Amino acid sequence: MTDLPTDSRLIDDYKHGFVTPVDEDTVPPGLNDDIIRTISRKKGEPDWMLEFRRKAFRAWQRKSEPRWAHVSYPPIDYQAIRYYSAPKSLAYNNGELDPEVKKTFERLGIPLDERQRLEGVAVDAVFDSVSVATTHQKMLEEKGIIFCSFSEAVKKVPDLIRQYLGSVVPVGDNFFAALNSAVFTDGSFCYIPPGVKCPVELSTYFRINAAGTGQFERTLIVADRGSQVSYLEGCTAPMRDENQLHAAVVELVALEDAQIKYSTVQNWYPGDEQGRGGIYNFVTKRGHCRGARSKISWTQVEVGSAITWKYPGCVLEGDGSVGEFYSVAFTNRRMQADTGTKMIHIGRNTRSTIVSKGISAGESVNTYRGLVSVLPGAAGARNHSQCDSLLIGDRCSANTFPVVESENPAAILEHEATTSRISEDQLYYLQSRGIDPEAARSLIVNGFCRDVFKQLPLEFSVEAVKLLEIKMEGSIG
Amino acid sequence: MKLETGNLRLLFPGETEAVHALRAAALDRAVSLPVPTGMEEDWRRTDPRRFAIEALPPAGAPARVTPDGAESLDAFYDVVVRVGSAGWSVEDRSGVLAGGEVTLRTLPEALEADPERTAGLWNLVPAPRPDDRFESLARAFHSLALVLRVKPGASLDRGVLVRWREPEGRLFAPALLVDVGADASLAVTEVVESSGDGPSLSLGLTRFAVGDGGRLRLAHVQRAGTGSVRMGFTHGTLGAGASLDAVTVHAGADLVRTRFSADAAGRGAAARVGGLFLASAGQHLDQQTLQIHSAPDTTSDLLYKGAVRDDGHSVYRGLIAASRGAVRINAYQRNNNMVLNEGARADSLPGLLIDADDLKCTHGATIGSIDPGQIHYLRARGLSEPEARRLILDGFFEEITSRLPIPALRDAVRVLLGSRLTA
């Protein structure tokens, strides 16, 4: 992979494609035991964390890269990737934020300065491998809420981390999760104490800046009994000719009566018209409804990445627990998305809802893949899945591969899927009322995604509609 | 038995060079394909090691004998073919074979009469899923292959019944090729039985081609013995304006894995596909369907309904594949499952693989059980609980049973399901 500088020849509608000129503290490319020790040392981790990483590394070595997804890409050289990259000045200025990094997040619309903060949103910003700022800490602390970077949490609340890290996504869960567990450099940790309703939206913003690196962050959210939290995640990266790997792990734990709402707007650089460059977004996200009547809700708007491979799921163990998955996946140009969800019903009277909307344009491939599984003890389990695909143009593909399985006679599962293009009648109707074809298409697509957008927190919802409009420009089929 | 070309001459002595060449080519293909291990996505729900091809000796080609042993259903067909361990026979009940409208030949005869067309149909494979080791083995070790041909424009009032009675302790590989001429019409019913409940392994191959404007009604009723392990591969193409109406019923056997596919390859072709299955104690049923649309303005409508009880396990895997250029198509796929008690299991994997844009493809899948409200309603009207459950299940199956081509066959299937449900 060659590292070409971002230049004016790559003019694109991807407005987050700039590079921030900061000195980065990195490790040499490659992955081995020494690199893992180096990462752990740089982060000043305790021995048990190093052991966790080394166990994951051994699991990763035994695994081969999954190739069952409906995507194609050249082999990835895992030894050519730098597994650690941090803005140097972070370390040098005693934690004071590098003005360049701060400017980056400002250009992205993520204010790190609490005086200008977005009302009601606390932000943890991750720049390449490390978390650079976490806002609102004081106010959250008063409520007993812990919201900080992962590295900080390892030092501050080691017992909580030891208890929950890897308890939802074990180190050897899959190839990319094992890789992440071995080399993850930062991420966010969040703990909501019993009975507390988090007063603000918590948010993490991920930014890949350095070239030749991957981003391997880890998010762990624990909602204790009767607590509630809403969490937002956003991502961008510079435009480059090379492909960069993003392999994250997100673990959610909901105890009795707790509720977690996790929303993502993923806008990693998708590559150019010819399919050069872009992020490989290979992510493992899983929630565990451990307690009775707990609820985990995933909402995702996927509009970026060259390749998306991600299946946020819920393990519904607590009786009466609820899992939800709302997704909009838009692919254009040569993008490939293989995404969906898994709902594992273990407890009695567990319920899950799946709403997936896929839109493919250009020469892209958009695949929904899902699993709904009802185990023998899940009496009274209920699932409804709705997967719709919209095709724009005749060179794209839309695929749906759901799996529905039941081992309980008192469970009811329903799955529906449709694939069609924008109806000529709808277009004609709107155009006859003076709306130009592009606006009409956009209006129809927005209507198509409405069920998902309305699940997003307000600020994200507005953003998502705008983002989809920008992404749709020029994709008239 | 070793999977070697040299063995073919020993197992099937005295065959024509043309047939031997087909066997040898199929065996070469089969051994070039990897042996499934169970780790493949396709094989994760059914253990491939249970299809122990090399464990049983292949049955040789049965001899032709005079017709004997008519059963009540036979009276409703023009032609009845019976294949069993004693030999195979043809009964031309209404004289259609003598009239020349319809021909029924063995593969060697058909290869001689019309080599290209016969070999083309024999080697036809569904494009999106072309390679299957077991399907190639079915070709290599076919015991008896029959070729049924209807002349263009001809039509049979009642149709052809083929009874396959598989022998115990053998690898039995029956094959049926159905060639329906342009604007012709034909109904074919296959009934599969075993001579007992001992171990047997069966690899069935069915191929059909329906000419422009032609019509084919296919029915396949499987009620094999409890020792039967079987695989079935059905595939065919539909010409412009042609139609297919197929119904498959699986009520027997120990382990079943089948694939049914139809390619709407001519403009305006229409396929209607129905399936009905019941998996009881120890049974494992794995069925795959493929609705291929390679031409514009084509339609397909698929409905598979099944019930699982005791520790039965059913797997349904469906796929709609629309190739580039297949515009203005309408494809529908539905799978409804009933899990009748704890311990039974139903898996449903419907799928859409779409490369065209101006179309409508829809699928739906449900897994549930008998609605307690419906039982309550019937009990309030004086039915016992078992009676109520039976009535509801009969209603559930009736949507498919009623699609079978002949009233007598529908009755036979109702009786068959009834006996399996009360067993």
Helices and strands of chain B, in N-to-C order? Answer: HHEEHEHHHEEEEEEEEEEEEEEEEEEHHH
Instruction: List low-confidence stretches of chain A.
Output: 1-12, 89-95, 114-119
State the secondary-structure class of chain A: alpha/beta
Strand content of chain B: 35-45%
Number of helices of chain B: 9
Give a short account of the largest sheet of chain A.
Answer: 11 strands, mixed
Share of helix among residues of chain B? Answer: 10-25%
Give the CA-CA distance, first to last residue of chain B.
37 Å
Give the overall form of chain A: globular
Overall pLDDT of chain A: 82
Q: How much helicity do the residues of chain A have?
A: 10-25%
Number of strands of chain A: 23
Rg over C-alpha atoms of chain B, rounded to the nearest angstrom: 21 Å
How does the helix and strand content of chain B classify structurally?
alpha/beta
Low-confidence stretches of chain B: none
Number of helices of chain A: 11
Written account of the structure:
The complex is a heterodimer of chains A (477) and B (423). Chain A contains 11 helices and 23 strands. With 477 residues, chain A is an alpha/beta fold. In chain A, strands 5, 6, 8, 10, 11, 13, 15, 16, 18, 20 and 22 form an 11-stranded mixed beta sheet that branches. A 10-stranded mixed beta sheet of chain A has the order 4-3-7-9-12-14-17-19-21-23, with helices on one face. A two-stranded antiparallel sheet of chain A has the order 1-2. Chain A is globular and about 65 Å long. Chain B is of the alpha/beta class and 423 residues long. Chain B has one domain. In chain B, the strands form 2 sheets. In chain B, strands 3, 4, 6, 7, 9, 11, 13, 15, 17, 19 and 20 form an 11-stranded mixed beta sheet that branches. Chain B has a 10-stranded mixed beta sheet with strand order 2-1-5-8-10-12-14-16-18-21. In chain B, a hairpin with a 2-residue loop joins β1 and β2. In chain B, α2 (17-32) runs antiparallel to α6 (133-140). Chain B is globular and about 70 Å long. The interface between A and B is medium-sized, with 35 and 35 residues. β22 (397-406) of chain A pairs antiparallel with β20 (352-354) of chain B.
